[in-house]
Amino acid sequence: MIQSPPAPLARARAFVIDVCTPAGPPVPLCGRSRRRWVRKLPYVVAWLFTALLLPLTGHNLAEEYGLGFGLALSLGIAQTVPLLVAVRRPLLAWAIAFAADVAAAVAALAEPVQGDWPWPWPPMTVISMLLLMLAVGMRERRPMLLAVWLATGVSGAVLRGLVPERSSSNVWITAFAVGGILMLLAGALRERGDARRALAEQETISEAERARRTLLEERTRIARELHDVVAHHMSVITVQADSAPYRIEGLPEQAREEFGTIAATARESLTEMRRLLGVLRSEDASGEGGAERAPQPGVARIPQLVEATVRSGLPVELAMPDPLPDAVPQTVDLSAYRIVQEALANVVRHAPGADTRVSVSVGEAGTDLLVLVVNTAAADRDAPPVETGGTGHGLVGMRERVRLVGGTLDTGPLDGGGFRVAARLPLTAEPGTEFATEALTDPTGKEEDSRTA
Fold first, then answer.
1. What is the C-alpha separation between 141 and 148, in angstroms, rounded?
2. What residue intervals traverse the membrane (predicted)?
């Protein structure tokens, strides 16, 4: 039996693994900001401090700490140039500069003391060290920040302990404390930014899922209604085929068998369609409720819909032909009613009190049913709407219904405020195959359903 390591060793091992794990791709510091000047700021700061610190560091190591010119210049370059690397790889830049800092302190041990300069870190080294620790805090996770902070503090304490008489100043303790504070603040800001970006991404995903769910629910409802329409016609075919031998005298036996085959095929088609669409019906929809068995509304019931909307306080003007067109396909009839219903509901939600006009007419060629719903801006622009935002889900349902019957839909805001919904529904439309082939596709667009100015 394999025994797990003790808890302290396991935590230490996990810490080492976490420290050695990169934080992510080398995205520039502030590279995710939307402001261009913020994205450029790290580069400007890095070049500015490199240009300032490089000559000062080399001169300080040579004149005050007694190093040779070549060695001082090399160590100065190794300590300051990593600031340019820190814009993309802060941890690598800190490691290079930290190694150069320690090497410079060790090299200075071989030289005699020349004054009471801070030991083991010169002032220029402290500045570059703090900048690099700030950059590390903006990129790395907490375990790595703790490791960097401890490495800086332990190395400074060891070097100071080796030769305590070199300086009476405790600048290294100040640098150690300030570096920790800078990394803590930078890490907190980074985590806050990461959390906000993750929340924004999650909201985007959630909105896409809501739009997709709304689309699928609308298509499911259309499938149910389409089933009711088709089932009626199939039932009529079945009844007519079954009763034909009794209604028509003198039918030959071959014709009787043909009518029997037609009736059997129609019944089989009804059974298969009900079995296929049964999975789309919810528990309530498949039950014995009266709503599922009620006749589907159509163009003839639009006046009742307008009357109910007027009673809710919305001024609506209706224009319809009298008499209504004959032989309107049931899918077109139902789609026209649903489009007007959703358009009026959106006016009530987003532009309460707006003057609204509903028009239902037949095109000049007599082949199209034209549905138009136009509303002005809200009567009281200062009054808050019933709903302050729109998701466009109502327009998704309209678009799917129009696509089902092979028509066109035009929606959009009006100049000066208001909204317009115009649909053209072919009176000879037959349900196409696009609904079946795209029933499970994900929506690729979203239109804002706003009816305010």
1. 11
2. 41-59, 65-84, 91-109, 121-138, 145-163, 169-189
Q: CA 48, CA 83: separation in Å to the nearest integer?
A: 10
Given a contact cutoff of 8 angstroms between Cβ atoms, the answer to whether 409 and 423 are in contact is yes
pLDDT per residue, tens digit, the chain (453 aa), is 445 556 777 777 776 666 556 566 677 888 777 888 888 999 999 999 999 999 998 888 888 888 888 898 999 999 999 999 998 888 889 989 999 999 998 888 887 766 677 878 888 889 999 999 999 988 888 888 888 999 998 998 888 888 877 776 777 788 889 999 999 998 888 888 888 888 888 888 888 888 888 877 777 777 767 666 677 677 778 878 888 888 888 888 888 888 888 888 888 777 777 766 665 554 444 444 444 455 678 888 899 888 888 877 788 999 988 787 777 888 888 889 889 988 888 888 788 888 999 999 988 777 889 999 999 887 666 555 545 444 455 777 788 888 888 899 999 898 888 899 999 999 875 444 333 333 333 333 333 343 333
Residue 285, classed as helix, strand or coil, is coil
What tokens does 291 get?
């709503």
CA angle (279, 208, 292) in 5-degree steps: 30
SS3 267: helix
Let me know: does 126 contact 53? Beta carbons within 8 Å.
Answer: no
Q: Are 219 and 439 in contact (CB under 8 A)?
A: yes
Which of helix, strand or coil describes residue 27?
coil
Residues 124, 126, 132, 135, CA torsion sign:
negative
* Alpha-carbon span 119 to 125, nearest angstrom: 11
pTM > 0.85: no
Tokens of 394: 């109502």
Report residue 195 as tokens: 């959390």
Let me know if 429 is exposed, middle or buried by CB neighbors in 10 A (0-12, 13-18, 19+). Answer: buried
Phi and psi at residue 386, to the nearest 5°: -60, -40
Length of the chain: 453
Q: How far apart are CA 50 and CA 79, in angstroms?
A: 9
377: tokens are: 């801006």
What are phi and psi for residue 290, nearest 5 degrees?
-75, -25
How far is residue 207's CA from residue 213's CA, in Å, rounded to a whole number? Answer: 10
The amino acid at residue 279 is V
- Can you state the angle between helices 36-63 and 123-137, rounded to 10 degrees? 150
